[in-house]
Amino acid sequence: MSNRPLASVGRAVPLLRAGLIAGIVVAAVAYPLAAFTGLGAKATAHAVEQKTSILKTALPAETSYLYAPDGKTVLTMFYEEYRQYTKISDMSPNIQQAIVAAEDNRFYQHHGVDPKGVARAFVSNARSGGVSQGASTLTMQFVRMALRDSASTPKEVQEATQQTSLRKVKEMRMALDVEKELSKEQILERYLNSAYFGHRAYGIYAAAEIFFSKTPATLTPVEAATLAGLVKSPSEYDPITSDQKDATGRRNYVLDRMAQLGYLSSDAAATAKSQPIQLKLTDPPNDCASIDKKYTTWGFYCDYLKNWWSSQPAFGANRLERMDKLRRGGYRIVLAIDPKIQDAAEKNVGAKDGTGTPFANGIVLAEPGTGRIKAMAVNRNYSLDLSENGPSSNPEAGPKVKANYPNTVAPLLGGGSLPGYQAGSTFKMFPMLAALNSGKTLSTEFNAPYRYRSRVYNDWQPTNASGAMTGRQTMWSAFGKSVNTYWVWLEEQIGAEKGVRLAEQLGLRWRTDVDREHAAPDRAPQWGAFTLGVSDATPLEMANAYAAIAADGRYCEAIPVNMILNRDGTPAMYRTPGGVQREVAKPRCRQVVNADAARAATDAARCPTGDTPARGSCGGWSTADSVRGTVGRPVAGKTGTTDSTRSAWFVGYTPELAAASFIADPDNPFNAVGDGQSQVPIGAVAETLRDALKGQPTREFTPPSDQIVG
Predict the structure, then answer these.
(1) Which residues contact 619 (CB under 8 A, 6 or more apart)?
(2) Which helix (H) or strand (E) holds 328?
(3) Using an 8 Å Cβ cutoff, are 592 and 548 in contact?
(4) Where are the strands (E) in 288-371, listed by range?
(5) What angle do CA 562, 563, 565 make, to 5 degrees?
(6) Which of 643, 704, 692 is nearest to 672 (CA)?
(7) Alpha-carbon span 491 to 4, nearest angstrom
(8) pLDDT, tens digit, for every residue of 357-378?
(9) What is the mean pLDDT of residues 556-562?
(10) What is the model's pTM?
(11) DSSP letters for 75-127
(12) 543 pLDDT band (50/70/90 cuts)?
């Protein structure tokens, strides 16, 4: 028998005869006639018609790929079933012929149900008194896999795979209908993309890669026969874990069948059978912990991508549905991370050599005008292996609880469930912006005392960090020196709730019971300590909030991707509340404060960094006056420390980038970092901005108007 083109074999049995066989032989031969009468009533035409329509469109689960910004470098994958859909034109004829030889040598002669196979099964079943053979054709097997893959409930999965007579009859009827709708070539393509070959290999692409580190197009007859032989029983014929005796025997059986069907000559089959099974194994990465270790902290960025994905309605109604889409939807995801900026961030927070400390030093950089997160780094290894971690620094945790260093997968930089860290005076930006947006000017003066007694906040008496801050202050000098009493007074003038609501509009979320209670509408007007940064925040939130100020008050939601493509290559889309279709990966921006107010806030924020504002005076000194010299270009920002310096922050920005860095003990917030380490975040931001922007043209901030200067 000669080698035949797989798509050209004619249908040898007329459709009428196939129908008679389906109605008589399937009923009377495959199963006892008395039983079939009841089964036929249950397997209604409506149910078959409904399921057949699903089979024509259903695609199996497919692996999603996560790429570096070049769109070519695969960082990791997400999958429950490792699979990449492959067209039959991209498969070697060897694997097509081998699977027919192994599973259904009359595939091109029948119309979904093989009468001869049914007869053989009937004889075998009658002898055994059960169902020892099922006479499943490739088409019937495809039907079963398609129903399994399209199932949306555990019950549907069970119905698609359970060994019952009812399921078998439905499967046969549907196979006949499928063959009226799909060509043999289409059925074979879908079958080879659905079959399980063992070792997490679903579909022929995964099987070729995992067992032989090659593509389906290049499979040899020996390799194809080996893989085709696995489908019947992936564990029994596994060539990886067994001594290969059974695997070789099964492979040789497939090679013999290929020769009998004319796909191989007798000599070629004999030569192939004489060869040992030579594997070249590949272990495909899965999820964030599988990212190559040379990308030291990219795992934290990957984890942020997953948390962001789980919050996107475009991918499902809830977190469970969205993560299921990620692992089964076959997406191509290109990260927004910038390798140059990431390298600078890693270097300047000691990500590669500073993991042996309970104090986490992390940094996040956001792009003004897009919200794209360009880098995330922390002095930790992203790893599930906590075996080398010591005990937690939190005395209430107990001796068996591991510390967060050197290894962790906790979202220390934001984007997950952790509340973050008290951000101190970096929060003074929010009442300043609210005041400027409400009509106050940069020249607003107040004779700030060392201790201020608030008549609005129930006689609360905040103090300044130093007596040198006492005296007349404007927004420029009060921001540069971080004069607490000035900002509490200003907050009283506009209402604390305005700063709270503005912080929310700039992306902050309240993650502790205490913060949520104070931020509630009925309590926010009394939250005087808000301006001093008693609330928890994450570096991700703070970097993106300050990025909005750099973008003249235009806030963009934080986003970790440049592109998301569906399995068919089209951009992933979502529908806005207004009914507009938009790409999921496109920036989502809105004007939160007017541009002049944002420019005025930036002018004041140049004072803490040692930079010179365009319009006013910083009052002679500042809290981070080394930053301007390190960055070497116009820069704004704000320091922040908490009581007893339990944590320390610096958030800085240029027109191109915003960066937020912190140092704190994530396990024990009462473990103070101390004044000696309060400069660490300042250096991390300044040096990272310097390195990230090296070689780029210097851009100036736009000065505020005369009206808002006052």
Answers:
(1) 473, 474, 476, 477, 480, 481, 607
(2) helix 319-328
(3) yes
(4) 332-335, 360-366
(5) 170
(6) 643
(7) 83
(8) 999 999 999 999 999 999 999 9
(9) 98
(10) 0.88
(11) EEEE-SSB-----GGGS-HHHHHHHHHHH-TTTTTSSSS-HHHHHHHHHHHHH
(12) very high
